[in-house]
Amino acid sequence: MVESPFDAHLHLRQPGQLLELVINHAKIGGVETAYVMPNTVPPIRTVEDAVKYRALLEKLEPNVNFLVSIYLSRSLTTDEIRKAKSFGITGIKSYPRGVTTNSKEGIESYEIYYDLFKVMEEEDLILNLHGELPCSDFNSNISVLNAEEKFLPQLIKIHKNFPKLRVILEHATTRAAVETVKSCGDTVGCTITAHHLTLTVDDWAGDGLNFCKPVAKLPEDREALREIIRQGHPRFFLGSDSAPHPIDKKLPNSPNTKCAAGIYTSINLIPLLATIFESALPPPMATSNLTKYFQDRRKLSPIPLSRFNDFVSKFGRRFYKIKHENLKMIKLIRRRETSEENLEDYNSSFKIRESFDYSFDVSKSSSAHFLYETEQEEGVKNYQKTKLIPFWGGKVLNWRVEES
């Protein structure tokens, strides 16, 4: 049994950009509360935007508690920060300019936001940091492999200047990030994704489906992430960074088109994570008999399942100060070793779906702002079809969520 899983970093996009497909997947994947990122197109820039976005999400999926955030930009004011607190906005998300999906309006310097950080500290709003420096400066010697480590002095500086401001280093990927967060005070937390607990640089080099920002690093970095969870450190908790992209964005046909950064895990998040806890090695694709494989499977860097509830629920909820009232329990079912004749059918209930078909309205996805658009006239809709491929699509997990 797992106590009300909390995903502290989720991307849901907007209407016409996969929202209609993925909005219900968080619940299916076992999540009860989710903190949703603001890098939609256009971004969630104001309190009004955030309130409208939350209402839209709650209308589409009333069974998940959605927390929302605002995109840090020059248009944000101290008055808007105070207003955000009164309207139940959880935090402000910072994206360095150009480092990840929909971050072209991101920031270039933190000092210019110190007046906002001061008010955030007073109002007890969270600052969520995408912890990478841009790689665009040729003379900076920064690449995707060291962009996170180069960012860490910024985290230390912000924490030093605003020691009571709750700050989260999002989706850490390096030993250096783990050690830096550990060295900070109790107001600095860190999210870790499911996929960074299994991937390394060799998994995404040449495979767009495993490419995300920040990229997975070296095996020793992966081990540092697993070890800090193994230790039960209370300031490290789940943030999936589940980021859906259509297949043509992940595996583009044009040689001049870059692969979109993002891995989609939401649909199977909690059982996926339980499987990854047991081994950093991925399971096989679905076959008629997996018994021998799982019997022979080498356990690589297991994390005790006794740490599972703390990581996926307790620690994140505590840091975010989410009230522990009427917490719902979800039950995970372990895949058993069996020689049943219907073994293939049995295993299929633990199999991650290979892909999801999605039809979207092109005219709707290119609207000026999805939160303020008016109803389109009949006959002007332009539908196109695409696919969404989840992480480990087609593979068989050790666990599944019990259907309610």
Write the layout of secondary structure elements.
Elements: E1 2-3, E2 6-10, H1 19-22, H2 25-28, E3 33-36, H3 47-60, E4 65-71, H4 78-86, E5 91-94, H5 114-123, E6 126-130, H6 147-161, E7 167-170, H7 175-183, E8 188-192, H8 201-204, H9 219-230, E9 236-238, H10 247-250, H11 269-278, H12 291-296, H13 308-320, E10 329-330, E11 332-334, H14 343-348, E12 356-361, H15 362-365, E13 383-388, E14 399-401
Q: What fraction strand?
A: 5-15%
CATH superfamily membership, which one?
A: Metal-dependent hydrolases
Q: Shape from CA axes?
A: globular
Rounded radius of gyration (Å): 21 Å
**Secondary structural class:** alpha/beta
Termini separation comes to 13 Å
Q: Give the strand line-up of the largest sheet.
A: 2-3-4-5-6-7-8-9
CATH topology: TIM Barrel
Number of domains: 1
User: Which H/E pattern describes the elements?
Assistant: EEHHEHEHEHEHEHEHHEHHHHEEHEHEE
Identify low-pLDDT runs: none
Helix content, binned percent = 25-40%
Largest sheet composition: 8 strands, parallel
Mean pLDDT: 88
- The count of strands amounts to 14
Please tell me the CATH architecture by its name. Answer: Alpha-Beta Barrel
> What is the top-level CATH class?
Alpha Beta
Q: Count every helix, treating DSSP H or I runs of 4 or more residues as helices.
A: 15
Organism: Phakopsora pachyrhizi (Asian soybean rust disease fungus)
Protein name: Dihydroorotase
GO molecular function: dihydroorotase activity; metal ion binding
GO cellular component, one term: cytoplasm
